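Probable peptidoglycan glycosyltransferase FtsW
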Amino acid sequence: MNGLLYRTKGDKVIWTIVIFLSLVSLLAVYSATGSLAYRERGGHTEYYLLKQLVVLGMGLVIIYFAHRVNYTIYSRVAQVGFLVSIPLLIYTLAFGSHINDASRWIRLPIINLTFQTSDVAKLAIFMYVSRQLSRRQHVINDFKKGFLPIIIPVGIICVLIMPANMSTALLLMASCMLLCFIGRVPVRFLAGMVAAGALAIVLMFAIAKISGMEMRTKTWEKRLDSFVNDDHTEVPYQVQQANIAIAGGGILGKGPGNSTQRNFLPHAYSDYIYATIIEEYGLMGAFLILAAYMLLLLRCIRIYKKCPYAFGAFLALGLSVTLVIQALTNMAVNVQLFPVTGLPLPLVSMGGSSVLFTSMAIGIILSVARNVEEMEGKQAEKERLERVMAANAENAAVA
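Predicted structure tokens:
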């Protein structure tokens, strides 16, 4: 055990945040799924708790082994990941499992496990963009040599994700744009990227209407209409129940396990788990969750500043940005500051592949942090030896 702790490196604050969010996840998932498990699993109320415990345990194992790998290896993995993501996303659109009119999942035939291919694509494209940004800093102001090799892969991935998962595609595009902005891509190029994205959305709606395949576009239109409509009778059911849960939470909440809206709130264990947390732990609990993600971002910005190599710096910042933006989006949806999206709360919502790929992203961030930590240690040891040598030389001169 001591050996395992000794080999666990990286930013200790990030490790603490991971443990904190995992514990919150177990408490919230158990509370939100107790009655559901009782109905569906013949009284076995701990079924989903145990399932989430296993998934989070696997996630911690992934974080540990990912952070032990030298982050420069991920530069080579990025290319393979990007190339593999394209056929996976195409296969998902054509043959994936359909849930709520959306084809987002692939079911593995032997172990009967489903996972979202967009999770693979998100992780791969951030590693790929970080690699390209680090390699093209000397030509970053050149549209053909600097910008196009970065943005074309992003556009391909977003277009393939968009038909089944518009919110994930928009989140991915926004996160990549922010990373490109930090990577000194000219603003005029990014403005063109926004225009191209808007055109892609319009074309997709037009193609869906012409072809008669309007099931998902109607869902998006309904969500946007209910968000901007002042008529409260048109507020979606899940939004109404989330509002009731938040109003009932108050400052300190009703206490762990005392949520009443969990029995009425759809997806109280995933998309709307933040509303469940607010009901049970109040605004204080909500603030702690928000503060944890903000602290994660601040620590990753610190890693970005300290990392001497561009790839590691962009990698740590890019992966943290997408996790925090996803978390903020989920929380904004729960408190009705944003239209319904279906994005889970990273490391907190009940899930399988989403938790595992989030863990992989955090492991990569910690790999960069470990490298920075080791370099700082070597630099400190070098400075100590120089001081010792200087002191010895001074003593010899005096003698």
